[in-house]
Amino acid sequence: MHTFGRDEVRQAMRAAQPIVALETAVLTHGLPHPTSLEAVHAMQRAVRESGAVPAVIGILDGQLVVGLSDTQLEQLATRDDVAKASARDLAPIMSRGGSAGLTVAGTLAVCRNVGLRVFATGGIGGVHRDWQANADISADPREIANTPCCVVCSGAKAILDIPATLEHLETLGIPVLGYQTDRFPQFYARGSDEHRVPHRVDDVKQVARVCDTHWRGLRRTSGILLANPAPAAAAIDQDEMNNVVNHAVQQAAAQRIRGQALTPFLLSAVAQSTAGRAMQANLALLESNAALAAELAVALLAR
User: Fold this and answer.
1) What domain range is 36 assigned to?
2) Model pLDDT for residues 243-262, shown as the tens digit of each residue
3) Which positions are annotated as active-site residues?
4) Number of structural domains, the chain?
């Protein structure tokens, strides 16, 4: 059901070389063009420089492509008929010959299908604020729970209900590891003492041991979340971030914005309030996560 856009990805899979999966929703919907394309290229370079092969995954004209070529990436970034696809959307979009950038959940569904064990992204979705009134929960945690893949990210998106998201991850049985941190990162911000990770890991070999024990030793089939804080030089202060998000949530409530329109609205409001610093933090953490994921992919094959 899939094809390869790059020969290097096909060859790496045949030779059992380290591979890092990368999503395309950041390319098609997460960042403006041409910044989005530059971000994906930067992530690919970071993966290669750390010894692994990048595999950017998306849907182009009904074909699921693992390892999109530069030409294919350009098409997804610039065409106006590209959807945003979660796991539930893959079959309908492919069946009608459509094109799509894949979310975390959509990418994980493909990782499970083709056997990729390491995936780098920005921040995962989770439980939205005011979930008691509107049960808005991202598909990302469920797909992590169903996929034996380590998701390297900067925690969860800052617009979410972080305590509820952490509880949801626990309920689903997903190990959450903090990379060189005791705090659960909140995307642009590096986290606070209020929200702690259950387990801290301080080097990549330790992460690889956890993954190996989880999958081979205990025969668990769920994924693992490796939370890597945004680089300190680019991160936004946690208190400032909380104030910005709270203000954006109040704006959304006043304008009665909810459902699928809520996340894009909140992210846009955060970007405006931080005068571009949120985007710089986003770019920095994407590249950092890609490099760490590649190191992990190499370490896993060395075991």
Assistant:
1) 2-301
2) 988 888 888 888 988 766 77
3) 23, 157
4) 1
Q: Which residues, including other chains, have CB under 8 Å from residue 296's CB and lie 6 or more apart?
A: 118, 150, 152, 204, 207, 208, 211, 226
**CB proximity list for 51: less than 8 A, separation 6 or greater:** 18, 294, 295, 297, 298
163 prior amide bond cis, ω within 30: no
Share of the chain above pLDDT 90, in %: 80
- Per the document, the length of the chain is 303
Residue-wise pLDDT tens digits, 127-142? 988 777 677 899 999 9
Residues 110, 21 contacting (CB under 8 angstroms) = yes
- The torsion angles phi and psi of 69, rounded to 5 degrees, stand at -75, 170
Residue among 220, 210, 231, 218 at smallest CA distance from 286: 231
Express each pLDDT in 58-114 by its tens digit: 999 999 999 999 999 999 999 999 999 999 999 999 999 999 999 999 999 999 999
**CA pseudo-torsion sign 8, 10, 11, 13:** positive
- We report the CATH number of the domain holding residue 270 as 3.40.1790.10
Please list, in sequence order, all residues whose beta carbon lies within 8 angstroms of the beta carbon of residue 287, skipping any fewer than 6 positions away.
39, 42, 43, 46
